[in-house]
Design a protein that fits this description.
This protein is of the alpha/beta class. Helix content is 40%, strand content 21%. It contains four helices and seven strands; from the N terminus they run E-E-E-H-E-E-H-E-H-E-H.
Length: 122
C-alpha cells in the first residue's frame, strides 16, 4: 500500500484487545482511512472482540475520526463484541460531550479500568 499507515500499537491481554494510537494528530483523510483499515483488520482477526481504543497520545483529531469511531463501534457490536475508549485528552473529551458521543461510547480514565470493565458485571 502506498499510503503511510498511522502508527498504532496492538496489545492482547486476557480481558481485551488494546489498540493505542501513537500519533498526536489524526487530521488527514488518508490517515483516517488507513486507521480504519488497520482497526478493521484487528476486529476481523479477533471476531467477538473486547476492544479498547487508547487515545493517550492523541491531542488533535478531525471530525472524520468521530465518524470512524461510530463505524468501528457498529462493526464491533455486529460481531458480538464490546468497545471502550480511554485516556481521552480533556479538549477532545469536550468535543465528545458537545456532540453527545459520551452517551454513545463507554469512556474510561485509563487502559486498566477499560479492560477490567469487560470482566465486571454488565
Amino acid at each position: 500500500m502506498a499510503a503511510i499507515q498511522p502508527r498504532i500499537s496492538v496489545e492482547y491481554t486476557d480481558d481485551a484487545t488494546i489498540v493505542a494510537f501513537t500519533d498526536e494528530k489524526i487530521l488527514e483523510d488518508v490517515d483516517v482511512r488507513a486507521l480504519q483499515e488497520s482497526i478493521e483488520a484487528v476486529i476481523e482477526q479477533a471476531g467477538k472482540v473486547h476492544l479498547v481504543l487508547d487515545f493517550r497520545h492523541v491531542r488533535f483529531l478531525s471530525s472524520a475520526v468521530l465518524g470512524l469511531l461510530i463505524r468501528i463501534s457498529k462493526r464491533v457490536h455486529e460481531q458480538g463484541g464490546q468497545l471502550r475508549l480511554c485516556n481521552i485528552h480533556p479538549g477532545i473529551y469536550e468535543v465528545f460531550k458537545i456532540t453527545r458521543l459520551t452517551n454513545v461510547f463507554d469512556i474510561y480514565e485509563d487502559v486498566d479500568s477499560a479492560a477490567q470493565s469487560f470482566s465486571g458485571p454488565s
